[in-house]
C-alpha cells in the first residue's frame, strides 16, 4: 500500500514541480493513516480513500506553490485559519520544513488530532491552537504577525476575508483556496477586501490532477492595516458579510 501511495503521490508532486525525500513521503503516509484511524471516531473528513486523500487533500494543499513561487526557499510565517484536519498547513510543513506554521481551529477535539499528528510525525516549528478567528484576530500575539494567511474553510470570500485579513502583515497576503467558478463571488467581495486593507492581486485557477474539480487560489495583498473595527464579534462576519 505504501508503494502505490508513493507512486501516485510522486506523479502528482511532479506536476507541481516538488521533490520530496523518502522520509517526507513516509510522513505523508503516516499522516494519511492517522487521518483514517481518527476519522473512525470523529468527523475529520468525508474523504478517506487513499487516492482521493492524495489528490484532494495532499496535492491540493501543496498547490499553493502555484501562487507563491518561492515557497520552497523562504521562511514564511503562515497561519492556517479553520484548518480542520490540518489542510493545507500540515502538508505545507512536511513538504517545506523551513516554513513556520500556526494551525487554528475552533474545535478542541480537532486540535487534539492535530497535536497527535505533529507529535507522531516529529514536526518542529508548527503549533496547533484552539480558538475562533474573531477572537484570535484581535489578539496582539497574532494580529498583523503573519506573512501569509491560508484557508480552505468553506465560507464566502467576504466573510473569510474578515476572519483572515487581520492576521496578515502589511505587504503580506491572504490566499484562500476556493472551489469552482468564483468570478461572481470575487466581484461581490472586492469592497469588503478593500475595507479590510487589501486588494485582489491575482487568481490562479486549475484542475486537480485526474479530476474535473476546479480549484482557485485568490491572492489578496494587504496594503494597509486592517481597521480596529474588524473582525467584528463572533458570528457577525458570517451572519452579515461585509458588502
Written account of the structure:
S-adenosyl-L-methionine binds at residues 82, 87, 133-134, 152. Pfam families: GidB (PF02527). GO terms for molecular function: methyltransferase activity. By secondary structure, this protein is α/β, with parallel strands linked by helices. The protein contains nine helices and seven strands, in the order αααβαβαβαβαβαββα. It has helices spanning 2-15, 22-39, 50-62, 89-95, 108-121, 133-136, 157-164, 183-195, 236-239; strands spanning 77-81, 100-105, 126-130, 146-151, 168-179, 198-207, 214-222. α7 (157-164) links the parallel β4 and β5 (168-179). It is globular and about 50 Å long. It starts with a helix and ends with a helix.
As for the number of domains, it is: 1
Q: Report the principal-axis shape.
A: globular
Provide the spatial order of strands within the biggest beta sheet: 3-2-1-4-5-7-6
Structural class: alpha/beta
Low-confidence stretches: none
Number of strands: 7
- Average pLDDT level: 95
**End-to-end separation:** 49 Å
**Percent in helix:** 25-40%
Reported by name, the CATH topology is Rossmann fold
Question: For the report, how would you describe the main beta sheet?
Answer: 7 strands, mixed
String of helices and strands: HHHEHEHEHEHEHEEH
What secondary-structure arrangement, pairings included, does this model have?
Layout: H1 2-15, H2 22-39, H3 50-62, E1 77-81, H4 89-95, E2 100-105, H5 108-121, E3 126-130, H6 133-136, E4 146-151, H7 157-164, E5 168-179, H8 183-195, E6 198-207, E7 214-222, H9 236-239
Parallel strand pairs: 1-2, 1-4, 2-3, 4-5
Antiparallel strand pairs: 5-7, 6-7
Helix pairs in contact: 1-3, 2-5, 3-4, 7-8
Amino acid at each position: 500500500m505504501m508503494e502505490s501511495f508513493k507512486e501516485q503521490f510522486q506523479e502528482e508532486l511532479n506536476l507541481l514541480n516538488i521533490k520530496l525525500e523518502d522520509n517526507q513521503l513516509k510522513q505523508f503516509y503516516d499522516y494519511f493513516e492517522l487521518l483514517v484511524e481518527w476519522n473512525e471516531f470523529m468527523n475529520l473528513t468525508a474523504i478517506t480513500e487513499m487516492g482521493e486523500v492524495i489528490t484532494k487533500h495532499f496535492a491540493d494543499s501543496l498547490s499553493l506553490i502555484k501562487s507563491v513561487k518561492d515557497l520552497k526557499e523562504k521562511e514564511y510565517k503562515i497561519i492556517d485559519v479553520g484548518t480542520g484536519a490540518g489542510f493545507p498547513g500540515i502538508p505545507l510543513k512536511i513538504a517545506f520544513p523551513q516554513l513556520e506554521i500556526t494551525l487554528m481551529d475552533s474545535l478542541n477535539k480537532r486540535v487534539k488530532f492535530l497535536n497527535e499528528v505533529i507529535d507522531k510525525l516529529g514536526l518542529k516549528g508548527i503549533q496547533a491552537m484552539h480558538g475562533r478567528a474573531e477572537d484570535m484576530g484581535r489578539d496582539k500575539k497574532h494580529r498583523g504577525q503573519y506573512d501569509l494567511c491560508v484557508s480552505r474553510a468553506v465560507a464566502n470570500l467576504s466573510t473569510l476575508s474578515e476572519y483572515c485579513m487581520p492576521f496578515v502583515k502589511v505587504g503580506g497576503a491572504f490566499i484562500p483556496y476556493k472551489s469552482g467558478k468564483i468570478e461572481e463571488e470575487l466581484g461581490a467581495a472586492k469592497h469588503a477586501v478593500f475595507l479590510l486593507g487589501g486588494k485582489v492581486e491575482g487568481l490562479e485557477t486549475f484542475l486537480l490532477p485526474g479530476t474535473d474539480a476546479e480549484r482557485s487560489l485568490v491572492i489578496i495583498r494587504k496594503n494597509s492595516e486592517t481597521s480596529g473595527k474588524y473582525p467584528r464579534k463572533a458570528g457577525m462576519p458570517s451572519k452579515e458579510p461585509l458588502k
